[in-house]
Specification:
Elements: H1 2-9, E1 38-43, E2 55-57, E3 63-66, E4 71-74, E5 79-81, E6 96-99, E7 106-109, E8 115-119, E9 122-126, E10 139-142, E11 148-152, E12 155-160, E13 163-169, E14 176-180, E15 186-190, E16 194-198, E17 206-211, E18 215-220, E19 225-230, E20 234-241, E21 244-247, E22 256-261, E23 266-271, E24 276-281, E25 296-298, E26 309-313, E27 319-323, E28 326-332, E29 335-337, E30 348-351, E31 357-360, E32 367-369, E33 374-376, E34 385-388, E35 394-397, E36 401-406, E37 411-415, E38 424-429, E39 435-439, E40 446-450, E41 453-456, E42 465-468, E43 474-478, E44 481-486, E45 489-493, E46 504-510, E47 513-518, E48 522-525, E49 530-532, E50 534-535, E51 539-540, E52 546-549, E53 555-559, E54 562-566, H2 568-576, E55 585-587, E56 606-608, E57 613-617, E58 622-626, E59 640-645, E60 658-660, E61 667-672, E62 682-689, E63 692-699, E64 703-706, E65 712-722, E66 732-739, H3 747-815, H4 819-848, H5 856-871, E67 874-880, H6 888-908, E68 913-920, E69 924-931, H7 938-943, H8 951-961, E70 965-970, E71 976-983, H9 984-987
Parallel strand pairs: 60-66, 67-68
Antiparallel strand pairs: 1-28, 2-3, 3-4, 4-5, 6-7, 7-8, 8-9, 10-11, 11-12, 12-13, 14-15, 15-16, 16-17, 18-19, 19-20, 20-21, 22-23, 23-24, 24-25, 26-27, 27-28, 29-58, 30-31, 31-32, 32-33, 34-35, 35-36, 36-37, 38-39, 39-40, 40-41, 42-43, 43-44, 44-45, 46-47, 47-48, 48-49, 50-51, 52-53, 53-54, ...
């Protein structure tokens, strides 16, 4: 407490929140405001909260508070003591008069003089060397240009060019307590008990002529109001009327530490010993000697964390109270809580035409709630069914009777045919004056009251919801059954007609469409088709207990998890196009929606009142909302990457790219989105560019961890949204960093690795090629040896024997006298001689193919030359184009083909010349074998080879094996041309 009371004796002043220009939470509705309009949350030591003298919100959305050792910041979820970077420190442990300029950062004054400034995690300290001359804690504010001003013991200083510069000095007798108003005038209560003002753009305080002897503090408010606090537990109110300052109204009886008039012009007073007092609207405070309105008080005895308090409003209209026991948050809510009698169970509300509300319950008599009173009636407990008809008459069903609550005093209409709490689930009053009630016992079920008689309607034993539309049609619903009674003629719809609402709990009509809410679905019915309503993002609504169209045609649906609001235009689109998924706004308990609604009794749990209000009931609580003036949804702030930690070091993030050492491979990122209203609704996604471009869902988690990262450039990105949003369309925060490489991750090392790998690959390939060449040569050598063996065998056996036959035939022919027989033997000898010659040519060709397959052309030419010499026929070989190495297998086949064609030409053409040509083209190798002999008959070409010969047939088969094209042509004037074309990919080795 001693630390707290220093604010009364040190040179301290409080700044009006109008200096920050907080926006109103919502427009003034004309409804009286009270603390029932706020959601109160306490933060104590258990939640990590300090016990501060003051709190302030910085431009990035954090709430800052002094903690006795410095300052802590709060992002809505957690309190974190501020830890300066190594080598930096605050100018003192005490942090007084926290101030957050619009440009960002946080100023604080120190009791011993000097100031500190925090921005982007760094601390700058200002003392006499930096021009900050003060012997006590300074007060900060901004002028219209956004320049930061400090009021200290010597006078006023302005922060300019990184230094503090004095611009208004004052002597000791003029010193006092100052605060700036919304018009940038500075007000001061002096030691001599005078109220002074420094008008904007002037350099001298002016005495207003008002005596404020004993004053301790001054707090300017809106509408030219000035509050002055005195040590005698009173606060006086003054008005500045064109320079004339005069006192208005009675003094407020509080020992005030601050008077705050918030952005809705509601008055809050924080005190030194009695918590916070809420006085309501500023313009409702009497200007004359009339009594002050009764204030609402919150102190430690009724829920505040402490009695010593400082009140502050943030940029979104939330009220914060710093106390000696923690921090309290009062968040404006569109829902105003209804004060129910203690012990109320199964609350049932029915507003009337004047927007008073009738309250029934399971255990208490019916009450009538007005703006200023709660009046108990003679209507007994168990009024769990209430109803207002189109004539604004209000009715209630208790455990034994049907009552009319208004107009006039409450009266009994009829005794029920069956008694007991909760016997009636629903009711309606038809245009013909009949009351229809849905009883729970199957004996009665749907029953009507006509001329004082209860008449069951047969065939409808279990009805859960009743509704009569403007055409006089009564609708009765149950589980996937809906019956329309038009002129008392029922028509029932079921699941086979598309009805899928489940147990129907509420039915309403709007613009010709019937809306059915059940425990499984919310459906529309246009008279022909039932359509289930699916909201944006694929969200369905179930467990519907309330269904209302407000005065503006907007749809409100209460379900077990909260309330959905769909704007009129979205409703129209959904009705016009059944596949349309309308956008919506969702409210839940965080917004002030009462507790879980009833599911069987007290239905519907949401009802329309007068003046745009909706009344909502939970089972033991209730609230109302003015649908005409709702707070606008506020966009989320940009996420912030708070920390990059590698297990040993936390790095400075206030740089364009964070440089990490080569050992930083396991990294942890801490991030957040400052959200002081609904941090529970935040959801996050993050990704690490350079590793993975896919967003990772983090849920509510605010940390991301990566392990075993490689060296290189990265960018960490994070984004957030509210859990009920259907798109990630908010801003993205990013942090660029680079991890230095280890020696084996450097470019030069990778280049050496690549070179070594290429060298090894080259060596492996070279070895494999040599092995392949060795194997190929070995195969060629084996084949050549086999050919030579075949040639020797042919020469030593067949050819030698054939030669002996030739000689014997010749000898026999010489001994014969018969000329005919002699001629036949001679012809036979010549034929055998020809066969022997052809055999020698073939043997010669076999012997030419040796194990050296590297020069196929040379082998062909050598064979041609031998054949030329043997047969006395000219031979010519030519080569066109750049000669290329041939593939082994294809080259061997080509040699065999050309050899066969040359042998045939030399042996059978009977010409004087044989030519062989090779044309090495880019796409193909073309070979020409030509002679000037007798040619080849068309019959021979047709059958492939002469009878008993297989040479040409073998040529064709070999050509097909290497995908070669072969063509036979008659040369002019005589001879034969044979053209062979082989694709490059099949014949060339490279």
């Amino acid at each position: 407490m001693a630390r707290k009371l220093r604010s009364l004796i040190l040179f301290v002043a409080m700044i009006c929140c109008s200096a920050k220009g907080a926006e109103p939470a919502w427009p003034n509705t004309g409804d009286p405001w009270s603390l029932a309009h706020y959601q109160h949350t306490s933060f104590t030591k258990k939640e990590g909260a300090p016990f501060p003298d003051k709190v302030v919100e910085t431009a990035d959305g954090y709430l800052w508070a002094d903690n006795g050792k410095g300052v802590s910041r709060f992002d809505g979820q957690r309190f974190q003591p501020f830890e300066p970077f190594p080598g930096e420190a605050l100018g003192g442990k005490d942090a007084n008069n926290l101030f957050a300029p619009k440009a960002g950062g946080l100023w604080m004054a120190h009791a011993s003089g000097g100031a500190s400034f925090i921005k982007n995690g760094h601390v700058s300290v200002y003392g006499k060397e930096q021009g900050f001359d003060s012997i006590l804690a300074a007060l900060f504010f901004e002028d219209r240009r956004g320049d930061v001003i400090a009021y200290t013991a010597p006078g006023f200083m302005k922060f300019s060019g990184g230094k503090w510069v004095k611009f208004i000095a004052e002597d000791d007798s003029e010193r006092g307590y100052v605060a700036r108003d919304a018009d940038f005038n500075v007000w001061k209560v002096t030691k001599t008990g005078r109220l002074h003002v420094l008008r904007e753009n002037t350099r001298k305080f002016v005495d207003t002529g008002v005596d404020v002897s004993g004053a301790l503090m001054v707090w300017p408010g809106p509408d030219h109001t000035i509050f002055v606090g005195f040590g005698t537990a009173k606060i006086k109110r003054f008005e500045d009327n064109n320079g004339t300052v005069s006192e208005v109204g009675r003094p407020l009886p509080f020992l005030g530490l601050r008077v705050l008039v918030d952005s809705n012009k509601l008055v809050w007073v924080s005190t030194a010993n009695d918590g916070v007092h809420f006085l309501g609207a500023l313009d409702k405070l009497p200007r004359d000697d009339a009594p002050l309105p009764v204030d609402e008080k919150l102190n430690h005895a009724n829920g505040l964390t402490g009695n010593f308090s400082y009140v502050y409003e943030d940029s979104h209209g939330t009220i914060w109270v710093a106390t000696d026991g923690g921090i309290d948050r009062f968040m404006p809510s569109p829902f105003s809580q209804v004060a129910l009698p203690f012990g109320t169970m199964m609350a049932t509300l029915q507003p009337n035409a004047m927007d008073d509300v009738w309250l029934g319950s399971e255990n208490l008599p019916v009450r009538r709630l007005t703006q200023h009173a709660s009046v108990e009636t003679s209507v007994p407990p168990a009024a769990l069914m209430m109803y207002r008809d189109d004539a604004n008459a209000v009715f209630a069903v208790t455990s034994k009777q049907l009552w009319q609550l208004e107009p006039g005093p409450p009266k009994v209409i009829a005794d029920l045919p069956v008694t007991g709490t909760g016997r009636v689930l629903s009711m309606t009053h038809r245009p013909d004056g009949e009351f229809w009630l849905a009883f729970r016992p199957k004996k009665f079920g749907l029953t009507r009251l006509r001329e004082g008689q209860w008449l069951p309607i047969d065939g409808f034993p279990a009805i859960s919801a009743l509704f009569t539309d403007k055409q006089g049609v009564t609708w009765a619903g149950n589980k996937n059954l809906l019956t329309a009674f038009e002129q008392n003629q029922p028509r029932t719809y079921s699941a086979k007609d598309g009805l899928a609402a489940g147990v129907i709990k509420v039915i309403v009509a709007n613009d010709g469409t019937l809306w059915i809410g059940g425990d499984e679905n919310l459906q529309m019915f246009d008279g022909r088709t039932f359509t289930s309503l699916t909201l944006a993002g694929g969200r369905k609504i179930s467990e519907v207990s309330g269904l209302v169209f407000d005065n503006g045609g907007n749809l409100w649906v209460q379900a077990i998890d909260g309330i959905f609001r769909v704007e009129r235009e979205e409703v129209r689109k959904a009705v016009a196009a059944h596949s349309y998924t309308p956008r919506y706004r969702f409210f839940d308990s965080l917004d002030g929606v009462p507790g879980e609604p009833a599911q069987i009794f007290s239905l519907p749990t949401m009802r329309r009142g007068a003046g745009g209000r909706l009344w909502i009931s939970g089972q033991t609580s209730a609230a109302w909302i003015n649908t005409l003036v709702l707070p606008k949804p506020l966009p989320l702030r940009t996420p912030i990457v708070e920390q990059l930690f590698d297990g040993t070091t936390s790095y400075d993030l206030n740089v364009q790219t964070v440089a990490l050492p080569k050992t930083a491979r396991d990294l942890q990122f801490a991030y957040t989105t400052p959200e002081l209203r609904f941090p529970e609704r935040l959801r996050f996604q993050y990704r690490l560019r350079g590793l993975d471009d896919t967003w990772q869902d983090a849920g509510t988690e605010r940390k991301a961890t990566y392990h075993a990262l490689s060296a290189g450039d990265y960018r960490f990105e994070v984004r957030s949204r509210n859990k009920d949003d259907d798109e990630w369309n908010g801003p993205v925060a990013s942090l660029a960093f680079v991890i230095a490489p280890k020696y084996y991750e450097t470019l030069w090392f990778k280049a050496l690795e690549a070179a070594a790998a290429l060298l090894v690959l080259w060596a492996v390939i070279r070895v494999q090629v040599r092995i392949g060449m060795y194997r190929e040569r070995n195969k060629m050598r084996i084949r050549a040896n086999e050919r030579e063996a075949v040639a020797r065998d042919l020469h030593d056996t067949l050819l030698q024997s054939n030669q002996a036959v030739v000689l014997q035939l010749a000898a026999m022919a010489n001994r014969l006298d018969d000329p005919v027989l002699k001629g036949q033997l001679t012809a036979l000898a010549e034929l055998s001689q020809d066969v022997a010659a052809e055999g020698r040519d073939k043997v010669q060709a076999l012997r030419v193919e040796t194990d050296d397959a590297s020069d196929e052309l040379k082998r062909i030419v050598e064979l041609g030359n031998r054949l030329s010499a043997e047969h006395q026929v000219a031979f010519d070989a030519r080569v066109n184009g750049q000669r290329r190495q041939l593939r082994k297998d294809a080259g061997a086949e080509l040699v065999a083909i050309v050899n066969e064609l040359m042998i045939n030409a030399f042996r059978h053409a009977k010409g004087s010349k044989v030519d062989v040509g090779f044309d090495f083209g880019r796409r193909r190798l073309e070979v020409l074998v030509a002679d000037d002999g007798i040619g080849i008959s068309s019959a021979t070409l047709a059958i492939g080879s002469p009878a008993g010969h297989w040479g040409l047939q073998g040529v064709r088969e070999r050509a097909a094996a290497i995908q070669a094209e072969i063509a036979f042509e008659q040369a002019s004037p005589k001879g034969t041309k044979i053209r062979i074309a082989i694709p490059a990919r099949r014949i060339y080795a490279e």
